[in-house]
Every structure is written in structure tokens, then in C-alpha cells.
Amino acid sequence: MTPVAELQRDWFFVPLAAGSWQGAECVTSCVTQLSAMAAGADTIERVRRTVLVAADVAGTEAPRARVFTSVLCDLVNQGWQLRAGDDGLLLRQPASQSDDISVEKARVRAALLLERDGQLREPATRTFVRGMEARRLGPNGWTSVFSLMRDGAELAGTLRAAAGLPLVEREVAVRSIIDPYIQVIGPTDRCQFTGLKLTDVWRYFRHTWASPYNSTPGRKIWILVRDRAAENHPVMGIAALGSAIVQLRLRDEWIGWSAASFVRRVTADPSAIWARWLIDSLKKLVGSVFCGDFVAERLIRPSELRHPTQRAIARLRREALEARGVHRLYPTAAAHKAAGLGSRRVDWRSEARSPLFRSKRAQFLAELLQARKDLCEAGLLKPSRAALEGVLNTSRGRRAISTVLRHTRAAHQGVDMLDIIVCGAVPPYGALLGGKLVSLLVASPEVACAYEERYGSSASIIASSMAGRAVRRKPKLVLLGTTSLFGIGSSQYNRIRVPSELAGGAPGGFLQYEELGKTEGFGSFHFSRESIGEMKVMLARSKGGRRVNSIFGEGVNPRLRMVREALDLVGLPSDLVLRHGSPRIVYGIPLATNFRDILLGRTTRARFILPRSAPRATMGALIQHWVRRWLLGRIESAKVIEEVGSHVLTNPVHHGARICLPYVQEEAPLFPVHGTSVDTQNRPYIDS
Predict the structure, then answer these.
(1) How much is the mean pLDDT over the chain?
(2) When you count CB atoms within 10 A of the terminal residue's CB, does the N or C end of the chain come out lower?
(3) pLDDT tens-place string over residues 367-390
């Protein structure tokens, strides 16, 4: 197919000449059906099933036709418009944002629910949900996951009584009604009241989110916020911290990690200190790479590590390409997965010699030696202001600085900062702004200390595989980052600004979420699980094999790279189709005043905003701030109390924390048992 051509009024033409490939007829039929129907998830899913079956007649082009038609179904389901044109089809994106906040949120939520509901239709997920909801004998009698939900009617009644009290008495009463605390989840921890695995409890409530639940590689911390004031300590909210997104323009510019912002900073202060940082950082990076096999094979000589030559750099680049080719043919995913499990018996030298990390080591070393060569030629032989100014005045010198900065950033990003990947309240606490509480507590010293304790002695997988030995970096959590679910309207992170002295910190500081701007609305979340599965099959069967293996350590965002490659292969405009039109607000929350110097490796001593000496006491101060700042005023609203009371646990359960399984026709019973009925979620319950 030829490249996409832009038409007037934001319509894009995708050539699809009849006879140019065997799947063209199937795609044309799909476009005709989708453009003539009213949008609706159920209807679109029926079209998807029909056209996927019809695509099989395309012979060897069937995988390509299946991807093409499945992606079109996804786009229409999210408001894209399609038209059949002469020898092709016309595409138009939905409006990026509506002026109506509720309309925009509904559009984004519909896009997220597409994949979420697909996940909830999977047999394994449905079995898990029903198993959690089934009654079982626990430590204190018969329980289920419903035992960890707070009855809204009971909570509303007690809050209604407290709302009429004077302010001081109201605060005392509310603290006896709602008493939050954090529970950081270990891999084998179980609930002391129900006997349920806490990881399963967390996962159950995560499935109630609009977005699908997916495991993420790298470091992670799962958190429950529970209420000790009620029986069984019901779950108030859930959160998770995970390895930070590798590249995020707004965040990187704010931190000083982008090449342009860093060069501006150094140019404004070209001191000998920065020159020393540049020399020392480069030396440390070169020393972090295992080179024994390269030297033994005469790929590079020891003297060339100190005084690089262009020939040595070229040899390393050729070796990187050759090893990458071997890895693509034989990716050995199982071996990398075993190393990723954190086993203490990993042979890091063997891992370093694997094709993947041999390629990464050769490329990494080539880039560092090129930077060293450029810096030396620019005159940076000793740390001085004059030498640094000479480097900044040459394009090769600035390029070398960018290389050192990029790899220094990578060394700290996976250790000293994390992303908030899940954060929110569980009904009925959401109406009480429980999301604000969870947002505060994930930034508490108790969570940071738990993270540092868990990973303080763990070997870094990628760093150890690059060094050929166990590399343990003591973490100092100094920054959290996150993005909002919606790019418009209020967010639970807004207006969170806690004076540090309220929690025992130094006067004048604040623990706060800083809004950094909005993303460009580019990504792959809007593709269904069906489309992702079809893409994987097509790429696996394509000429040359599948080039994106989704192995930890292989590269940035393997899913996005895989989707882009699949879209390009079928002839859909990836730059257009990946632009989902749902920008999100980017936030950063510093935990230390000198977080930038920590993340650049300029210092190892963090100046924390909140003290780490008594994390429980600090958490109590944050909870008290939430109660006074938001909760006490919230319970005075009759509408809020009514919403809280709508979540009931009496049979049949109508509670917002209960997972709503999508209807699956195959599971509907032919002959319902007498005395029971079946709800729209396919769950039999006894009539009360």
C-alpha cells in the first residue's frame, strides 16, 4: 500500500485498490458494514466476529486482513468515522476533546472499557472473580471478598449523625468511624480476617477500574488502604508504584533530563564541578560494562577503552547489529524471564553473553567510547570551566554530553524514582474523596521505606546483565510521577499541598503534586485484546519473523513498537492511528528537595521533605490533614451521604466495589434453578 494522503477536513485516505492484495475485499466489506451502522459495542463486536471469519478466505494474506479489520472495529468503537471511497477508505479521528467535561470523560472511559470488558470476558478472569465472591471458611467464619467491602448504608448512617456535631467533636467522631492505615502487600501475605491472598484482593478491586489490569515489568509495590474502624478492616483504596516510564518529554524537561534543558543549565553555569561530573559519570558508565569477552576476542583492546579510535567504535557497532540479528531469531524469552524472577542463582556472566545483552553491551560501549573520543577532541582532558566551555561550543561536544546524560538518567530512573501506576478509592469511600487520601499515602515515608527495604539488596536485572556480575543499587526514592486518567476536568491529584511542618518536616516545604502539562495523546491503550492478539500472530508469521519480543531489557515499550510495526505492515497510517486523542495530565511529586541532583548522580544524600525517622507518625499526620482538609466538609453534603448509602451488601449485592462481569451468552443457564434468578452479569443469587 502507498503512504497515507491527507485530505480536506481532517479526513485521511488509505489506498485499498481491489486486487492489490487478497484481503482487500474483506476489508472493503468491513468498512461498508461499519460505516452504515450506529456505533455500539455489542454491534461492533458482532461485525468483528463476522469479518474475522470472512478474512480467512484471504489465504496467505488472512493474518493481515484480520489485523486490518479488527483495528477498524476498535477505531469505530471509539468514535472514529469511516467511509468507503474509490479504491480505498477514508478515516477521520474523533474530536480530540469536547467542551463538555462529562462527554469527554464518557468518550475516554468507553475507549478504556473496550479492552477492560474484553479481559472480563476471558474464562480465567471470570473464574477468578467468582472464586473471590464465593463464600469460604476463613479464620473468623464464613467470608468472601464481600467481607472486605464496607456497607454504605451503615457508613452513611454514622456519618450523618456525626455531621451535626460541632467541629472539634465532629473530628473526634469521624476518626472513630473511619480509621485508615496502609498495608504494603508481600507476595505471600494473606488477610488476617478472611484468609484471602492480599494480591488476589488487590487484583479483584483493580478489575473494577475502567482500564484493564495488566502486569508490568520491573520493580513494583502494591498497597491496600484499609479501615480499622469497621469489621474485617474493609478496603478503602488501592495503589501501586512501578518502574517509571522511560521517556516522557514533559517530565524529563522538568527534571533536567532532556538534552536541551540540561545543556541550557550547564551553559548558564559552566563550572569545573560540571566538568568533573561529566568526566566521572563517563568513567563510571564505561566501568559498568562487562568487556572481558570483547577483549579476549580482540574486538577491542584495553588501550582503546582509554583512548578510543573510530575503528574500534565501528567494530563494536557491527557486533551489536550481528548479535541483535541472532537474538531476533532465537530470543530465548524463558531464560530472560528466569533471570527476571530475581533468583539468587543467576549466572550474570552467562546472561551478559546472551545475544540480547551482547548486542546491548556492544552498542552501549560504542556510544560511550564515541562520547569519550568527542570530549577529548573538544579539549575536556581535565575538569575546568574553560574546558567545559570548549565542549559546549561544539556540536560533537554537546552530543557527547547528551549521551552521558541519557545513560546516567537510565541508571537512576529505575532505582530512585517510581510511577504511581494505580491510585484510587474503593466504593463507598470514593464519594468521601478517598482518592485524595490514597494519593497522599502513596507519597508517605512508610511506602518509601517499604520500597527501599524490599529492593535494597536486590540485584538490578539489566545492570547486572550488562556488568556480568550482581549489581545492587541502594534505592533512594526521591520522586514519584503519574498521569491523570482524563485530560480534562478535575483530578484527584489537584490541590494536594501539605505543609511539611504538619508532618514533622522543616518549615517552608510542601508535599505536593505539581502539574507539568499534558501528553500528546499518543499510545496503544485504545486497541482491543483481540486486535493485539491478531497483530502478534501476523508478525510471527511475517517474513523475517517477529522482531519485537516483549522481553524485559529488550527496549522501550515493546507493545507500542509491536503495534506500530503491525500497523505499518498492513498499510494503516500508524502515526495517525496511534494518536488516540486522549491527552493526560502529567504530575510529579518530589519527595526530596534535591531530587534533581540525586537523579543526575551529583549527590547521594537526599534531603527529604518529610522525615523518615518515624514513618507511622508521619502517615498519621497525613491522614489527619485529609480528614480536616476534605472529609469533615464532605460529610455535610446530603448528596454525598446519599451516594455513600447507595452501596449495600444485603443480598442481592448492589455495591460499587463489586465487579460487573459483561454478559456472555454461552454462560446463560437454559433452565434456572427454582428459587434463583440470574442477573445481567450471569451470577445466580438467592432471592431475599
Answers:
(1) 85
(2) C
(3) 999 999 999 999 888 899 999 999
**Residue whose C-alpha is closest to residue 533's, from 208, 119, 78, 127:** 119
Closest CA to 530 of 94, 3, 122: 122
Residue 177 in this model has a pLDDT that exceeds 60:
yes
Alpha carbon distance 164, 301 (integer Å) = 80
pLDDT given for residue 686 in this prediction: 32
Whole-angstrom distance, CA of residue 246 vs CA of residue 357? 18
Task: Please report which confidence band the pLDDT of residue 397 belongs to, taking 50, 70 and 90 as the band edges.
Answer: very high
Per-residue CA distances from 678 to 141, 177, 671, 688 (Å): 27, 35, 11, 13
Q: Look at residue 634 and tell me whether its pLDDT is greater than 50.
A: yes
Distance CA 180, CA 173 (A): 14
According to DSSP, the β-strands at 141-143 and 136-138 are antiparallel
Q: How far apart are CA 132 and CA 195, in angstroms?
A: 11
d(CA 467, CA 35): 55
Residue with cell 504494603: 184
What count of other Cβ atoms lies within 10 Å of the Cβ of residue 326? Answer: 14
DSSP string, 402-433: HHHHHHHHHHHHHHHEEEEEEEEE-TTGGGGT
pLDDT surpasses 60 at 684: no
User: CB–CB of 684/676 below 8 Å?
Assistant: yes
The residue written with cell numbers 533536567 in the block is 256
Which has the higher per-residue pLDDT, 577 or 607? 607
Question: Rounded to the nearest 5°, which phi and psi values hold at 423?
Answer: -165, 120
Cell of 293: 569477552
Reduced to 3 states (helix: H, G, I; strand: E, B; else coil), residue 644 is helix
* Residue 213 pLDDT greater than 50, yes or no: yes
* Grid cell locating 681: 452479569
In the chain, domain spans: 5-94+527-577
pLDDT at 455 > cutoff 80: yes
Q: What is the C-alpha radius of gyration for the chain, rounded to an integer number of angstroms?
A: 28
Could you identify the residue written with the cell 474523596?
A: 433
Give the amino acid at 304. Answer: E
User: Which of 451, 494, 448, 473 is CA-nearest to residue 591?
Assistant: 448
The upper half-sphere exposure of residue 466, i.e. CA atoms within 13 Å in the direction of its Cβ, equals 22
How much is the pTM? 0.83
The closest alpha carbon to 97, from 487, 480, 425, belongs to 487
Looking at residue 688, its pLDDT comes to 27
- Contact by Cβ (8 Å): 319, 299: yes
Q: Contact, 524 vs 581, CB < 8 A? A: no
At residue 235, does pLDDT exceed 70? Answer: yes
- Terminal-residue alpha carbon distance, the chain: 61
- Cell 552501549: give the residue: 364
Element (H, E) at 128: helix 123-133
